[in-house]
Write a structure and sequence with these properties.
Elements lengths: L1 E12 L2 E12 L3 E5 L6 H9 L6 E6 L2 E2 L10 E4 L11 H11 L7 H11 L15 H14 L4 E5 L7 H18 L2 E6 L2 H7 L2 E6 L2 E6 L1 H6 L4 H6 L4 E12 L2 E6 L4 E4 L9 E5 L5 E3 L12 E14 L2 E7 L5 E7 L12 E7 L4 E2 L1
Parallel strand pairs: 3-8, 3-9, 6-7, 7-8
Antiparallel strand pairs: 1-2, 1-4, 4-5, 9-10, 11-12, 11-14, 12-13, 14-20, 15-19, 16-17, 16-19, 17-18
Helix pairs in contact: 2-3, 2-4, 3-4
Bound molecules: adenosine-5'-diphosphate and magnesium ion.
Length: 360
């Protein structure tokens, strides 16, 4: 059974619809990333679940019970706010103990529970400090400990890592994942950062303009995006706009782009229907001009150009290839020594499978 069930939630601010008919069920123990651009309604959705905002329409059910009439502290939901919102006049230990006292945990049990929570987030040594004496990452851990202390049925994290610098964000991301797994908490992690969403969530829910546009595994979201918005928002891509030419041959439809390129796809032929074509940069191989596939091999796209720019970024090399009509293509290759190095101005052939072109 779903621990959390949102049924047709709509929240309006005046005429503006911030959350638009959102329905979502989450199973016990699942970690779901709610991903979308700033302003798409993620925080509002969390606030509705936690009971800080009442929806205009729809219901929130926790373990099958409609919690619409319950106040936030009565809902057994742990929320970590984007800015952590620690109580500034309380120590770390008092912050973590707060929810426990509020919920009537016997006083004798509180210190043990606080210790356990602080050990979970590796903050035992700082329990007497005040929030202003902590770094951003440390505050984040305390906020998490405070949210988990009451053993909530649902944990809601609003952009938990966004206030941290890039390196720390990466470290804490893994740690957060481990903590959530170890407590088995049913969790929604809100983020606008696709990498964070893909790495933290067992499942991704993509939101756009107040609506859920796709739900699926990280792989499904990346490889089979439901629409152009999802494809553009998740991952890097090369985009072309084209019109289909001729007819479908052996399951291949060829598009002619505005820049005059021919791009073969595996999509169904729709005469007169222009389409947006998307190619992920890691699907583009760079080979010698004249090499590979053969021009009549319908399986491949073979586009000749010259290397316009190359950036060795650690494990990857980002190569921008300039094709005909100054059309540029980003290819990402593994940085595996000499064979993967390219010189600016070098002629090169971009090769990618027709089946790797996403058509919208
Ligand atoms: N209290 C409010 N009053 C009016 N508009 C609001 C209020 N809270 C949020 N909004 C608007 O609702 C939309 C969604 O906000 P929010 O849920 O915070 O988005 P996100 O968390 O995805 O960035 C935004 O356009 C925001 O300006
Ligand atoms: Mg937000």
């Amino acid at each position: 059974m779903n621990v959390l069930e949102l049924a047709n939630i709509t929240k309006k601010y005046g005429e503006f619809t911030a959350v638009d008919d959102v329905s979502l069920g989450i199973e016990k123990g699942a970690v779901v990333s709610l991903l979308g651009p700033s302003g798409c309604g993620k925080t509002t959705t969390l606030r509705v679940i936690a009971g800080f905002t009442s929806p205009n329409r729809g219901a929130v059910k926790i373990s099958g019970v409609d919690v619409g009439h319950l106040r936030p502290y009565e809902r057994n939901v742990g929320l970590v706010f984007q800015d952590y919102a620690l109580f500034p006049h309380m120590t770390v230990a008092q912050n973590v103990a707060y929810g426990l006292r509020y919920r009537g945990t016997p006083a004798a049990d509180i210190p043990g529970c606080v210790r356990q929570m602080l050990s979970l987030v590796r903050m035992e040594s700082m329990q007497l400090r005040f929030p202003r004496q902590l770094s951003g990452g440390q505050q984040q851990r305390v906020a998490l400990a405070r949210a988990l202390a009451t053993d909530p049925q649902i944990v809601l994290l609003d952009e938990p890592l966004s206030a941290l610098d890039a390196k720390l964000r990466l470290e804490l991301r893994l740690e957060l994942k481990e903590i959530l797994r170890s407590v088995g908490a049913t969790t929604i992690v809100v983020t606008h950062d696709q990498e964070e969403a893909l790495s933290l969530g067992d499942e991704i829910v993509v939101m756009h303009n107040g609506k859920i546009v796709q739900r699926g595994s990280p792989t499904a979201i990346y490889e089979t995006p439901a629409d152009k918005f999802v494809a553009e928002f998740v991952g890097r891509s090369n985009w072309f706009h084209g019109l289909p030419r001729g007819e479908c041959q052996n399951g291949v439809t060829t598009y002619i782009t505005s820049g005059g390129l021919e791009i073969r796809t595996r999509s169904r032929f729709d005469p007169g229907g222009s389409a947006d074509l998307c190619i992920r940069p890691e699907h583009i191989e760079l080979v010698e001009v004249g090499a590979g596939g053969g021009d009549d091999d319908l399986k491949y796209n073979l586009l000749d150009g010259v290397v316009f720019d190359t950036a060795p970024l650690g494990a990857d090399v980002h190569v921008v290839v300039e094709l005909a009509e100054k059309t540029r293509l980003l290819a990402i290759r593994k940085n595996i020594g000499k064979g993967s190095r390219f010189a600016t101005g070098q002629p090169v052939r971009a090769r990618f499978l027709a089946s790797d072109v996403l058509v919208f």
